Amino acid sequence: MSQNTISKSRRAFLGAAAGTAVAAVAAAAPAVDRAKPEEKRSGGKLKMALVGAGIRGSTLWGKHLVDKYSDVVEFVGLCDINPMRVESGKSYMGVNCPTFTDFDAMIAQAKPNLVMVTTVDCFHAKYICRALDLGCNVMTEKPLAIDEKQCQEIRDTERRCGRNVRVTFNYRYTPDAERIKTILASGEIGQVTSVDFHWYLDTVHGADYFRRWHAFKQNSGSLLVHKATHHFDILNWFLNADPVEINAYGDLRYFGFNGDYRAKSCRECTHKSECPYFWDITKDQTCMDFYVRCESEDGYI
Predict the structure, then answer these.
(1) Which residues make beta-bridge pairs with 73?
(2) In this structure, how many other beta carbons lie within 10 angstroms of the beta carbon of residue 56?
(3) Which band of pLDDT confidence, cut at 50, 70 and 90, is reported for residue 43?
(4) What is the pLDDT of residues 166-185, one digit of tens each?
(5) Confidence class of residue 6 from pLDDT cuts 50, 70 and 90?
(6) How far apart are CA 19 and CA 225, in angstroms?
(7) How many CA atoms lie within 13 A of 260 on its CB side?
(8) For residue 47, what are the β-bridge partners?
(9) Residue 267: phi, psi to the nearest 5?
(10) Strand, coil or helix: what is 264?
(11) Whole-angstrom Cα distance, residue 50 to residue 80?
């Protein structure tokens, strides 16, 4: 699709690339143009479905798009294994589309052009491949997958189905990252021959990972995958290069069972007054609606 044929609404969509969710959805927008006429909604909107209706999915890939880009995107289905959480997501996003706990049923009924995957990391590959097999293009939250076997499965499925998968690295669209990319691309500092990049994760944000499913490697592949994937990507993007070889080493030395205070959750911990990482979820109504209220359905705390 040439620049001259982009509609006025699509121009506005692409022009807001500094918005995290916007740039990735804009890149996927051509999926509408490849769709059969009967698959398009009025105005040629991108028919989008989302699987994984937690906070990240319902905010960044949900409400933000609904509030700002309803002229080019229409949600036609939301799916989550927790029936209460998917209803919370629907209410928070302010959409009228049907909700599902069965992914295949959502695809069959909603017939989306694009599926957004925001599930727990270890299930990304499952839903990406299934969406491809069912004829949809896919966007997924980073990381694409948690191990090399899942990556190969996705790559093989994408090629077999002739569909497209995009990974959304939102850190690229922060002002500092965009500025660095612009400077490097301009040649202002000459040819880059060596990079020394350090990233220090503070204990405030660091502790947050260990309150959630991210803490377990079987879910997230460890923070070397879930978190450090940002940093590998940003370097590759800055340099317009692909890595030749990567080595990573990790250990659990500070959080988890290394701490002095242990409990099933912050809410029931007897060390609330002593622990510097205590977080009172009851003061966050959104998290109460998405998680505490829904615990009875799937046991996730």
Answers:
(1) 46
(2) 14
(3) low
(4) 999 989 989 999 999 999 99
(5) very low
(6) 24
(7) 6
(8) 74
(9) -60, -35
(10) coil
(11) 9
Question: Could you tell me if 114 and 138 are in contact, meaning their C-beta atoms sit under 8 angstroms apart?
Answer: yes
Tally of CB atoms within 10 A around 21:
23
Give CA torsion, residues 115, 120, 126, 129, to 10 deg: 30
Contact between 43 and 70 (Cβ < 8 Å): no
HSE on the CB side for 232, CA within 13 Å? Answer: 17
CA of 106: how far to CAs of 25, 90, 129, 147, 248, in Å? 20, 14, 15, 27, 38
Q: Do the beta carbons of residue 114 and residue 47 sit within 8 Å?
A: yes
Q: Any idea which residue has 């996003």 for tokens?
A: 93
At how many degrees (to 10) do helices 228-239 and 175-186 cross? Answer: 30
Shortest CA distance to 50 belongs to which of 135, 143, 113?
113
- 66 or 200, which is more confident? 66
Q: Which two tokens stand for residue 221?
A: 């592949």
Q: Do 123 and 130 touch, CB atoms closer than 8 A?
A: no
pLDDT digits (tens, 9 = 90+) for 246-285: 888 888 888 877 777 788 889 999 999 999 999 999 999 9
